[in-house]
């Protein structure tokens, strides 16, 4: 049972979901007897009635998932009560993160989606002036906006931050006190390298976790070096087999993240299986209060991710950025072949390249185990410099600011062309 959830709050949530979603009541039966262990995990298959419903009031807001799994964007709904709760939770989190900063101006560079749609309002309600950058602009235009607006805080995604770093000249004056991240994994070594480029400390690169389905979930607490789950959001870890994925194996200490939200209404947020892999989820006592913390979200698995699901880009990037200052990392999985492409303007000697290869092999046990077990051939680590052919190198400023990191092909789809 999740921490800090007594039977009254659990039962109230269960009854709310049964009342709002007839298909859920049908699935769980007519009995009014409540037992947490009998509450079903909401897997993707069990959520199909929600995703396929078209009976939506016009005054509800509709947001859509990215579609990166299965190439199909799912509609997620928020009513006015959901929106109010979303904004309030995010204000509380931002207020916590902004403690100790003398920030008066923020820039939201978030692309599209729920976070982008609400960012300006949230920062303004916290007393900061805020503007938003249009997503479709090339990377260089984002830098121009930073130079003109001179924000103290930048709210963005790791992939968008990468895009700006690719095109920023070494002497670019960022002028930032801090960066707040959301939307994608941000490994510690990557955050450290970003901080060095921006002229701030690693603690000033602040990571948060959210989802369209649940809303704000957790933030990285600098004082303990772990992610802390927000009040009112309760996290559990389950095995892949419990979530209907018996063929998926995870190393010790990793589980699938399951979430329950007491405030979310227009999504059945009761034991929702996120398919995110959480590392070292545990309960701790802090200031006399029980909190749920975890080390990181390291990858994603699920019924729509048939190949490459054991590859953690989080771990790969964290290993690389321990030795490389700036790089664009792409991971290619083709059948049982794994290739890591590192494009960097750093002048890497053979000793550093060897250190990167050793780090990748030694610090990512899952990859080593797959190589030894024959599931993967030996991992190829390829380095590309600034003079590499333009089809492989990055950083012209004319390409899309956000670029994909993990590429998975069936072996029959052909080899990647060099």
Q: Which keywords apply here?
A:
ligase, alpha/beta, 3 domains, 19 strands, 11 helices, Rossmann fold, Cysteine synthase A/phenylacetate-CoA ligase, globular, 28% helix, 25% strand, ANL_N_sf, ligase activity, 418 residues, GMP Synthetase, Chain A, domain 3
What would you say about this model in short?
With 418 residues, the chain is an alpha/beta fold. The chain folds into three domains: 7-78 and 213-300, no CATH class; 83-211, ANL, N-terminal domain (Rossmann fold), CATH 3.40.50.12780; 313-413, GMP Synthetase, Chain A, domain 3 (2-Layer Sandwich). The protein has helices at residues 7-20, 22-28, 48-52, 80-97, 114-125, 139-149, 158-167, 188-198, 313-320, 350-363, 365-372, and strands at 61-64, 75-78, 105-109, 129-132, 153-156, 178-181, 205-211, 215-221, 226-229, 233-238, 254-261, 272-279, 282-286, 289-294, 296-300, 328-334, 337-343, 380-384, 406-409.
């Amino acid at each position: 049972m999740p921490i800090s959830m007594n039977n009254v709050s659990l039962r109230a949530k269960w009854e709310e979901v049964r009342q709002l979603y007839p298909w859920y009541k049908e699935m769980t039966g007519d009995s009014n007897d409540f037992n947490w262990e009998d509450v079903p995990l909401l897997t993707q298959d069990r959520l199909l009635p929600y995703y396929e419903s078209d009976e939506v009031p016009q005054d509800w807001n509709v947001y859509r998932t990215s579609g990166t799994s299965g190439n199909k964007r799912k509609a997620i709904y928020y009513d006015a009560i959901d929106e109010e709760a979303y904004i309030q939770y995010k204000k509380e989190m931002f207020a916590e993160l902004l403690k100790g900063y003398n920030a008066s101006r923020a820039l939201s560079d978030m692309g599209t989606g729920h976070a982008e749609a609400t960012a300006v309002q949230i920062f303004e309600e916290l007393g900061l002036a805020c503007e938003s950058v249009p997503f479709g602009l090339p990377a260089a235009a984002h830098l121009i906006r930073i130079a003109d607006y001179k924000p103290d805080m930048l709210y963005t995604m790791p992939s968008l931050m990468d895009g700006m770093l690719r095109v920023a000249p070494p002497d670019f004056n960022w002028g930032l006190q801090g960066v707040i991240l959301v939307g994608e994994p941000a490994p510690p070594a990557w955050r450290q390298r970003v901080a060095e480029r921006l002229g701030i400390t690693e603690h000033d690169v602040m990571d948060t976790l959210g989802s369209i389905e649940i809303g704000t979930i957790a933030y990285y607490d600098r004082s303990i070096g772990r992610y802390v789950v927000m009040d009112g959001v309760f996290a559990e870890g389950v095995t892949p087999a419990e979530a209907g994925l018996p063929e998926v194996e995870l190393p010790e200490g990793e589980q699938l993240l399951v979430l329950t939200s007491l405030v979310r209404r227009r999504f059945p947020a009761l034991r929702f299986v996120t398919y995110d892999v959480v590392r070292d989820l545990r309960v701790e006592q802090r200031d006399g209060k029980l909190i749920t913390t975890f080390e990181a979200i390291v990858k994603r698995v699920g019924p729509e991710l048939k190949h490459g699901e054991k590859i953690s880009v989080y771990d790969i990037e964290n290993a690389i950025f321990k030795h490389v200052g700036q790089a664009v990392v792409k991971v290619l999985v083709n059948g049982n072949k794994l290739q890591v492409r590192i494009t960097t303007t750093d002048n890497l000697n053979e000793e550093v390249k060897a250190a990167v290869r050793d780090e990748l092999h030694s610090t990512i046990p899952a990859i080593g185990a797959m190589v030894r077990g024959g599931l993967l051939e030996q991992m190829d680590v390829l380095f590309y410099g600034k003079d590499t052919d333009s089809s492989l190198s990055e950083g012209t400023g004319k390409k899309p600011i956000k670029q994909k990191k993990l590429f998975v092909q069936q072996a029959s789809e052909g080899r990647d062309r060099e």
